[in-house]
Write a structure and sequence with these properties.
Inosine-uridine Nucleoside N-ribohydrolase, Chain A; single chain; binds calcium ion; 40% helix; binds alpha-D-ribofuranose; alpha/beta
């Protein structure tokens, strides 16, 4: 069963790993990428998204999205985590192609309307584009098949602050609208992504499996691993975004619980995702368990299929 996927992304090192994984997995059809601010400026995200699809040989559209959050001022990009251009130390490279004229929100709405019940939106950046799509045409909540989000931290601490995971932190208002929309949402948060860590030796295997694409992934992982070491994490980097793509196409590796969530919109706990049984919002399927070794092996071995 093929998962027909739009990836909403702020590439970004782990985004790049996720997109290359999706391109390599025969169970996934990439219908397009939509870009958003976050790890980098949205213009950089669009350039990087075009480059990633060209590297992977995938002929799919890229639609540029939000340059800033719904209501808050734009936070500085996470360049210390992902590099000034989003791919660690690798210099910016101009893509051959260009983004389509549609905005990300228009592309999300149109693609789901043209393929009712078939499209999985995998959101691995701030949720601004998804909120804008809901505002543009609320019927996307009925036409989408499923929304799988890398974000949140429900029974564990945050990463950008002790309370919040970065994607939710960067636009908590958008996250609240996304969680309240009534479409089927699976949340792949730090509760599970912090269980899936890759040291440098894992990226050596990825490079051995696919010298060209795997070599790129190895190169960008080095900057990412240095950041993790700079904050005292020496066991490897978390496969945040690849875990969300894998959960979208291979949910059997994850255990979930239906939880009603509220999002803290401001203050010290901005972006915190709080289990709120009394809330009148729809439940979200929160991933609380993962077969981490199996997910990591799937990630590493998928690249054997490439040249
Ligand atoms: O918290 C991790 C998330 O924030 C990932 O999507 C990473 O790319 C950053 O966007
Ligand atoms: Ca991301």
């Amino acid at each position: 069963m093929t998962t027909r996927m739009i990836i909403d992304t702020d590439p970004g090192i782990d985004d790049a790993m996720a997109i290359h994984y999706a391109a390599a997995d025969p169970a996934i059809e990439i219908l397009g990428l939509t870009t958003v601010f976050g790890n980098v400026f949205v213009e950089q995200a669009t350039r990087n998204a075009l480059r990633l699809l060209e590297m992977a040989g995938i002929d799919a559209p890229v639609a540029e999205g939000a340059a800033k959050p719904l209501a808050m001022p734009l936070s500085p990009p996470s360049h210390r985590v992902h590099g000034d251009e989003g791919f660690g130390d690798i210099p910016a490279a101009e893509p051959r192609g260009k983004a389509v004229a549609q905005s990300a929100a228009e592309f999300l709405v149109q693609t789901c309307a043209d393929n009712p019940g078939e499209v999985v939106i995998c959101a691995i950046g701030p949720l601004t584009n998804l909120a804008l799509a809901l505002r543009l045409d609320p019927s996307i909540a009925q036409t989408v098949k499923k929304v799988v989000i890398m974000g949140g931290a429900v029974e564990t601490a945050g990463n950008i602050t002790p309370h919040a995971e970065a994607n939710i932190y960067h636009d908590p208002h958008a996250a609240a609208e996304v969680f309240a929309a009534g479409w089927p949402v699976v949340l792949v948060g730090l509760d599970v992504t912090h269980e899936i860590t890759c040291p440098a030796s894992d990226f050596d295997l990825v490079r051995e499996n696919a010298p060209r694409i795997g070599g790129f992934i190895k190169d960008i992982s080095e900057f990412y691993l240095r950041f993790y070491e700079s904050v005292g994490k020496f066991g490897g980097c978390s496969l945040h975004d690849p875990a969300a793509v894998i959960a979208a196409a291979h949910p059997q590796y994850f255990t979930t619980k239906n939880v009603q969530l509220t999002v803290v919109a401001s203050g010290e706990a901005q972006g915190q995702t709080v289990a709120s049984p009394a809330a009148d919002s729809p439940a979200v399927e929160v991933c609380l368990g993962v077969e981490a070794a199996a997910v990591k092996a799937l990630f590493i071995n998928q690249f054997k299929l490439l040249d």
